[in-house]
Design a protein that fits this description.
The structure is a single chain. This protein has about 170 residues and is mostly helical. The protein has four helices and no strands. The protein is rod-shaped, with a radius of gyration of 57 Å. The N and C termini lie far apart (about 145 Å).
Amino acid sequence: MTSIPEANEPGAAASKDELREQIEQTREELGDTVEALAAKADIKGRAQDKAARVKDQVGRKSAEVTAEARDKAAHVTDKAAAVTADAREKAAHVTAEARGKAAQVTAEARDKAAQAAHIVQDRTPEQVKSVAVQAADTGRRNPVPVAVGAAALAVLAVVLFKRGGKRR
């Protein structure tokens, strides 16, 4: 152990100052140690710090996941719009083709009907033509009797048709 020099010895002033400095340094170190021990002993404070860190991490992760979900939703929406546009385009194309084919079939049917009408007209005897013209004129002048006659013929056809079905 070192001895503490007396105040009246030479070099004592320097030793006192050194001692005071060592004491001050030791006090600072002791204060730091006490603070560290107090921080370790403060379980509630440490738990709050940990909770704050975890909360920050969860917030960041939540923001990342939300951003990812928005990006994916936007991608899916864009994809759906593209598929819808493609389907509309194909439907328009198919509709146009169907209309074209329907027009072609209609034109062919009209042509064949016109050909059939010409054939019937060419092969129909003049007497039948004149009787048909007279019947049409009579029908135009007297529509009620013609309608009654047509109805009677329709009833007769139905009766004959029913009788023909019973014989079999």
